[in-house]
Amino acid sequence: MPTFNLNINTTMHTVEADADTPLLWVLRDVIDLVGTKFGCGIGQCGACTIHVDGNATRSCLLQVGQAEGLAITTIEGLSKEGDHPVQQAWKSIDVPQCGYCQSGQIMTAAAFLKQNPNPSTEAIRNAMHGNICRCASYNSIEAAVKVASKTSHESHNA
Amino acid sequence: MATGKHIAFSRRSFLKTSALASGGVLIGFNLFQACSSKAKMPVDLSQLNFNDFNAFIKISDEGKVTIFSPNPEIGQGVKTAMPMLIAEELDVAWEDVYVEQAKLDTEAYTRQVAGGSQSIRQSWQPLRETGAAAKQMLVNAAAAQWGVAPTTCTVKAGVISNAKGDTLGYGDVVKAAALLEVPETISLKAPKDFTIIGKAKGNVDIDKIITGQPLFGLDYKAEGMAYACVLRAPAFGQQLVAFDDTEAKAVSGVTAVLRFGDKIAVVAQNTWAAMKGKKALKAEWKQKSKAESTADHDKKLMALLEGDNFKIRRNDGNVKNAFAKADKVIERVYEAPFLPHNCMEPMNFYADVTPEKVHLVGPIQTPEGTARGIAKLLNRDSADIDLQMTRMGGGFGRRLRGDFVFEAAQISNLAKQPIKLVYTREDDMTAGVYRPSTKYKIAAAIRNGKITGYTLKEACVNGNMYGLIPNFFPAGAIENYQVASAQIKSNISTGAWRAPYTNFLASAEQSFFDELAEHLGIDRVQLHMDLLDNAKKNPNPKIKYSPERLQGVLQLAVEKSGWGNSSPGVYQGVSVYYCHNTHVAEVADVVMENGVPVVKNVTCAVDCGIVVNPLGAMNQIKGGILDGIGHAMYSDFGFKDGVPTASNFSTYQLIRMGQTPNVDVHFIESDLDPTGLGEPTLPPIGAAVANAIYKATGQRLTKQPYLHNMNLDTRVVG
Fold it and tell me: How is domain B438-708 classified at the CATH fold level?
């Protein structure tokens, strides 16, 4: 089996896998980073969202053979202490119900706020439209992205 | 103690204690029955005996409290709310409470099931009494040490004080308390003295969820575990004739291909190899029973509704007479499709079947029944079965059925190694246990401007409304009333789906009353208030709902939604319903955007008695409403020659952020015992939306999903 050198959460990992293996399964089965979730396998639900060079990316559609040389961030590496403004906003609003889709939601929101720190409600709703929450915690997700946008500003201005 | 009312502790025999070898006291209890006299309490936490107890409270020497929460967590919040009930009466600071998911056992009868919105309702009294009994023992221990009467002591946040002002922490007296008898009297707090119940408490797993720590079944791993995917018949009613696994076995990482019954398992070193191996299988199938299509079901159900072959579920007065004498008869048929559950975490389970033990780990809503079934399937002693629950990525009724646990156990048994069975999304959606397709025919007899008769016929695939549903509204409100049901049999697997039967029944019924109000020329809300007044006056109604509480929520929803005063271009629809012991009224605000109806806002009034955890309650209420809108408006599912018409989110639509209205929630203030919230806000919303769309478009919607079954070009202007 071929080996690949992956930069995940700023640590280099050498993994053995078939080149067509979606990065999702390498993260989960090989590197033991199970925060990235499997939901649909076809890029429709967003549960497997990670950051690739800072952009929100579906890890079920990215093959490990294409992932060398990319800076990959998973939910486990979003912050050291779970204290990214988006994570903290999720906690303060108490967004999760079953919680399964939430790492994908958080990763989508974090990448979006980096590119659009001061979004309108409409922009938030568009940005989060690709992530399904079967428990339908959407009102809380919308509120939490607004809180995160505000707290990121405050910490920048402090 | 000062505020509580002393009562005899009737559940003394439900509870036992022991001193832990590692320090602290352990309190084991059985929520619903006396513990067996033989039941031994462990002195070591690794030996928790769930045969005789279904939950434990540990109080450490430092006064920290760990509650082993008994009920499965599927996102409904019981892992937070149930410990809140114990902590309230135990009188400890919530910050000092840790919650762990309890393992489960198969022997003792308990209600260790997540379903029917029952967890909180049924455990309300026993969990509080358990907390109060534990507190009493700690107080008794402190009082004995001081040589004072326990009644002179008070407790605040885990600290006991006597009249002189001396204090002892719970941790200081746990050793002594462990040696005491279970108390004969306890005191429960009055609702006004609650410090934890009724206060918003965050999800106890929040830190793990937001940092992606392993929690769910799919995240569970064990030494030497392989992964398995299963190929099942592509159509219902088929059996496996033969298969060729040459290419599957050539996939790198695939270690075995195993047939069990009409299914083929591919076992591999990782999930991707198992999925690839499954795709590479070549199988030949044969139709064993009829390949059914939605068109056949529709035809048969309609024919059933036209006939007389119904079982009468409730009959009041004389409907025949009422319809014969009517000035006018209104009749409508309402239709709903099959629905898959689509939990975000696809079905999966870990199984390790060895000659010594059957070890099972994963997400399941019915652990006891499933474990019993596995013992039978594998012909094992039930003591061999060890089933451990994980947090669940949604349930919605799907994980009440243990079919995937059975598959996992069979595969491990054949492979002779621990395996994790993983469903792909396609497996999950096409090997479902679906909400059955249902049709209702509702008719009303009108005479002299009054509703004098009401009949509802249910035609359903494989199942019918259960229990007390025929005693829901409008039973007792209309003099001549009849509910009847009939079914057709199908080879498609069907089962419970969030708020079984009422999930569509409410849509049908509450749309029908909207239409009736129009025919009668009465305001919709007034009609409902009048009917509920009838129910109040009815001397022998045998009804399940409270007319007063339904009127209360309807009044509150009307006030908060600005009913009758909506802005131009905003169309409102209302719906009011009782199910799962909770009374709910909802008003939907719909606007037309580019000729398509969009729900912009929902006002919801809920009477669920005491609200245990407002934050969790709010999540359940909003989630139920949005889930209800999604499935009423957008989600479609059926069969063509036995094959499901959708298999992933590219062909099956779940509600997404862009379709989501804001939901305003208002509670009726109440001191009554709490009732469930996981289901009851879902059923009414379909009709609130349909009734609003009627105002916007002039179209009466009778078939779900509404957006697929309406004419989007005939809009009423203004």
Answer: Aldehyde Oxidoreductase; domain 4 (3.30.365)
Put simply, the answer to whether A99 touches B209 (Cβ < 8 Å) is yes
* Predicted ipTM of the assembly: 0.97
- B205/A131 touch (CB, cutoff 8 Å), yes or no: no
Total beta-carbon pairs less than 8 A apart between chain A and chain B: 185
Q: What is the per-residue pLDDT across B287-296, written as a single tens digit (0 to 9) for each?
A: 999 999 999 9
Nearest to A129 among B626, B656, B663 (CB): B656
Answer yes or no: CATH 3.30.70.100 is held by domain A3-77.
no
What string of DSSP letters covers B258-318? EEETTEEEEEESSHHHHHHHHHH-EEEEEE-S----HHHHHHHHHHHHHS---EEEEEES-
Tell me how far apart the alpha carbons of residues B101 and B390 are, in angstroms, rounded to a whole number.
Answer: 8
Question: What CATH number does domain A85-157 carry, 3.30.70.270, 3.30.1390.20, 1.10.150.120, 1.10.10.10?
Answer: 1.10.150.120
Beta strands of B393-449 (E only): which ranges?
419-422, 438-447
Q: Note the pLDDT tens digit of each residue in B591-617.
A: 999 999 999 999 999 999 999 999 989
B616-646 residue pLDDT tens: 899 999 999 999 999 999 999 999 999 999 9
Q: What does pTM read for this prediction?
A: 0.91
List the single best residue of B210, B218, B251, B656 to mutate versus A (max A Cβ within 10 A).
Answer: B210
- Judged against a pLDDT cut of 60, whether residue A31 lies above it is answered with yes
- Tokens representing B634? 């957008």
Using a CB-CB distance cutoff of 8 angstroms, which residues of chain B are in contact with residue A47? 344
Contact A142 B657 (CB under 8 A): yes
pLDDT at B665: 98
Q: What average pLDDT is seen over chain B?
A: 91
> Which residue of B203, B272, B648 is in closest CB contact with A94?
B203
B344/A39 touch (CB, cutoff 8 Å), yes or no? yes
What architecture is the B217-288+347-422 domain classified under in CATH?
A: 2-Layer Sandwich (3.30)
Q: Stretch B113-117: mean pLDDT, rounded?
A: 51
State the fold for domain B5-209.
Aldehyde Oxidoreductase; domain 4 (3.30.365)
Listed in order, the ranges of chain B carrying CATH 3.30.365.10 are 5-209, 217-288+347-422, 438-708
Nearest-Cα distance to chain B for A21, in Å, is 6
d(CA B56, CA B95): 18
